[in-house]
Amino acid sequence: MSDERFKTLAIQLTGITWGWQREFAKLVGVNERTVRRWAKEGAPERILDEARMMIGIYKSAPLESTWIVGRDETGQRFIIHAQRPFFLAKISAEQEPIDGFFFDLPNGGRLYDFHWINYPTSLRSMETLMEQAAKYLARRV
Length: 141
Hints:
Elements: H1 3-14, H2 20-28, H3 32-41, H4 45-60, E1 67-71, E2 77-81, E3 87-92, E4 102-104, E5 110-116, H5 123-140
C-alpha cells in the first residue's frame, strides 16, 4: 500500500489529522517510530487488514449505537465504545490478575487491555464511562 493510502486509512481510523501516528501506534500496539516508518515504506498487510476490520466494525454499527460487543477469531470477547472517547477493551469473565489499567465489572468480570483512540477528559468522565459500559454489558447477559 502506498504511504498516502496508509496515511488516509490511519487518519480515517483515528479520526484525527494532527498526531495520527501516535494514536494509530497506540491503537495497534506498536512504537510511534514504527508507524512513521510505515508511513514512508508501507505497512504490513496484517496491520492494514486489522485497520480495515476496525473501520468496518465502526461503519457497520448504526450511528445511534454507543457500544459494540463481539468476539475475535480466538474467541476473546471485546467491547468498543463507538463515540468519543473511543476505546476498545477486552472482557474477562473473571477478575484474574492483570497488569495495567482495568475496570472490575459488578458481575465479577473485568475490562482490560484498553486501546484508547482519544482519552476521557477527567477522572469523573472515566468513571461515568466505565459505569455505562458495565450497565450495557449487564443488559446483554
